[in-house]
């Protein structure tokens, strides 16, 4: 029997014929709303925001917290593929999607949680504690961003990244850079290379913004990614001292782009420009962030 997957809230709302197509529009989208129907008319009505009496919801949800890919599946044959050959997989069946999400939040890593479009709650205690204050000359620490007034004549740029089906095989990532309404410098690009993750796209968007802006210009980058901002303003200090290894002795993820962003900041400093970072709430009311997000989604859909 043909099922119709209706996406009411996602990257591209509409009706899809396969669950994988539906997942590509909802995975990584905060607050995604989607259901499956046996009637196309009901599916189209639901996607349009209308109230539909009966939805053909899956009776089982398979949560894969450790696997390749991670995520929530409604078909065991698909879920089993993601744990085959994985050392120490973590998975469980639930009766509701909410329970499956809670399981991944408990046992999954940051990327597994973000792939669901869920917010990652930072631990109360820091993993590392600096022995003494560190003065960063190459860029403005994030703790100063909110209190230190940038120099005059600052170019404001909004950056964002998007990954369709983030954390799964076949994911497609894109980046968006927004300078202003109808500004010819606005950019929508596919993320080059692998893996096609949201985090890499967020960082690459920052790199491209710094490449486009004139070197002598003071720049303030607005981003909804605390991960990306902290990578280049806080965590990089310790990583550089440890030869780009984490506290567990593992190689820092995405260090190729992180280091490229730091190089661009250093290059701008030498030219007389400064780089500032400002966190903004994503998917809210910030016009620049909304525009950058749309550009990033457009980039993810490019060939």
A few lines on this structure:
Keywords: Endonuclease, Hydrolase, Magnesium, Metal-binding, Nuclease. 35% of the residues lie in helices and 20% in strands.
Count of DSSP strands: 11
How is the main sheet built? 5 strands, mixed
Number of helices: 10
In helices, the fraction of residues equals: 25-40%
> Nearest-angstrom radius of gyration?
21 Å
Strand order in the largest sheet: 9-8-7-10-11
CATH architecture of the largest domain: 2-Layer Sandwich
User: Element order, helices and strands?
Assistant: EEHEHEEHEHHHEEEHEHHEH
Query: How many domains is the backbone divided into?
Result: 3
Beta-strand portion reads 15-25%
CATH class bucket of the largest domain: Alpha Beta
Distance between the ends: 32 Å
Query: pLDDT under 50 segments (min length 5)?
Result: 122-149
Structural class: alpha+beta
What is the overall silhouette? globular
Fill in the CATH topology of the largest domain.
Answer: Nucleotidyltransferase, domain 5
CATH superfamily of the largest domain: Ribonuclease H-like superfamily/Ribonuclease H
Q: What is the typical, i.e. mean, pLDDT?
A: 82
Function: Endonuclease that specifically degrades the RNA of RNA-DNA hybrids.
Family: Belongs to the RNase H family.
Protein name: Ribonuclease H
GO molecular function, one term: magnesium ion binding
